[in-house]
Amino acid sequence: MRHKLIFAVAFAAMQAFGASSMDNCLFNGRWEISADRARTSAPAATVQFNASATTLSFDLEGHSRWRLDVDGTPKEYFVTGEERSVKVVKGLDGQRHRYRLIKISETNPGYVILYKISTDKAGKFFDKPAASNRRIEFIGDSFTVGFGCEGGPGDSPDLEFEKTDASKSYAFLLADGLKADFQVNAASGRGIVRNYANIVPEWTLMDLYRYTVPGAAPAEPDAAVYDLSTFHPQVVVIFAGINDFQGDPPYGDKAKFKKAYAELLDKLRSAHPGVKFLLVSTKIWPNDDLTPTVKAIYDAQVASGRSDLEFLAIQTENTALLGHPSVHSHQEMANKMRPIVARLGKWLSR
User: Fold this and answer.
1) Which of 20, 174, 192, 235 could potentially form a cystine with 118 if both were Cys, beta carbons 3.0 to 4.6 Å apart?
2) pLDDT tens-digit readout, 279-310
3) Residues 76 and 161 placed together within one structural domain of the fold
4) Which residues of 77-87 are buried (b: 16+ CB within 10 A; e: fewer)?
5) d(CA 106, CA 81)
6) How many separate domains does the chain show?
7) Residue 198 and residue 320 in one domain
């Protein structure tokens, strides 16, 4: 009964608004889109649209943090709960702008649903924003999510939700700076063949990667498998494996790790002809096994005749929540990767 009441209130609120459309929206990230809703679990998943409005309303379901940008500048942050509700953003100037709604929290497990975006009665939507001719995919773990980047080493782990901001992760910053469309396919605590502390061992990053809405897949036997042909990145940044070799042992089997990593590269080459890769690593504790393992994968690829990939070992400033990179560290990572990604994508200015 409570859910029905909340929905009725939300529906009544929606009736006060004018133009409503998702046909005019450009989605970035993996979204499961149907006639009446769009569902995602991806960090940094975005919806862009052109509109004139003094008020915008977002009909949403699922516990998440959001950021609304106007012409690329943050306008408002807000939080939604598990129940379906309408978030109203007021104080807009009624002129035409490019709006971008960004899901800045992680949803793993789970998902969020966007049912509708509406303007005030005098507002209107314009043509869907054009897709970029630059496309990047990021595959990784909590470092790629932007987990806890706004926190500090002394903060309570219970602040994970409040301190995570995927719009401040190196992945979002890098794509945004290069004006590229992108996907962030990352999940905290997950590894290539072994998860942190061996949590949910049947659902590694590679298992989740198969699905359109990875956060929903473990609870849905008929979860949709993602169609790789729907988004063809020119560059894929892989920064994964931290959880395979960190935390309490036993650690991931290096031979299995190398095999699974190489299989991922071949899978992506087959799905995206001509794609380029940046393989990223960093120092981890206690044994610092990740960098030599990823470097060995890179060396083996080059020795086999591959010339479509580069390797980068970076140093991160792990001073945020639970030893994760800070906002400043994410900015530094984006700066280090940017020229390499731009070169791989052939996007360097002349």
Assistant:
1) 20
2) 999 999 999 999 999 999 999 999 999 999 99
3) no
4) eeebeeebbbb
5) 14
6) 2
7) yes
